[in-house]
Amino acid sequence: MKKFLSAVAAVIAAVVLAVCFASCATNYVGTYKLDSIHMDMGGLEVNVKVGEEYEGVTLKPDLVVLEVKDDNTYTISMSMGESITESGTWSVNDEGKLVLENAGQEMVAQNEGSMLVIEQSTSGGTVSMTLKKQ
């Protein structure tokens, strides 16, 4: 009887752990809109939040919209002068970061609560966008 109870306790513990791990996993599915942009270009740092103006342009949430779909596809639309829409597939890497892939190019997004931070290196420095889950 003790062996049976030990086996049942082990199964219950395994189920509880599985539920805990599943609930701790980040659910990236949803729509994200621009919250802020940070640029570090050769020592010059600029931080601009939605609602603020930078070089005559007021940042609005709809300037960048990322839709992460539950079928492991995504669409990102950017309206900065001209409208650009791209789509591709997404996955989660070993570090738990969101990886957006399009035509062999990858963008990695760090989860920060209800925010995603996408950082890209350019020849002049780095640009990061913070997107807020809607």
> Residue ranges: pLDDT <50 for 5 or more in a row?
1-24
Number of strands: 11
- Sequence of secondary-structure elements: HEEEEEEEEEEE
Number of helices: 1
Strand content: over 45%
Widest sheet, order of strands: 1-5-6-7-8-9-10-11
Outline: globular
Share in helix:
10-25%
Outline the secondary-structure elements.
Blueprint: H1 2-24, E1 30-41, E2 44-49, E3 53-54, E4 57-58, E5 64-68, E6 73-80, E7 82-92, E8 98-102, E9 105-112, E10 115-122, E11 125-133
Antiparallel strand pairs: 1-2, 1-5, 1-11, 3-4, 5-6, 6-7, 7-8, 8-9, 9-10, 10-11
Write up what this structure looks like.
By secondary structure, the chain is of the alpha+beta class. Helix content is 17%, strand content 57%. The protein has one helix and eleven strands. The strands form two sheets. An eight-stranded antiparallel beta barrel has the order 1-5-6-7-8-9-10-11. The N and C termini lie far apart (52 Å). 12% of the residues are buried. The N terminus is likely disordered.
Give a brief description:
This protein is 17% helix and 57% strand.
Provide key terms for this protein.
single chain, 134 residues, alpha+beta, 8-stranded antiparallel β-barrel, two-stranded antiparallel sheet, 1 helix, 17% helix, disordered N terminus
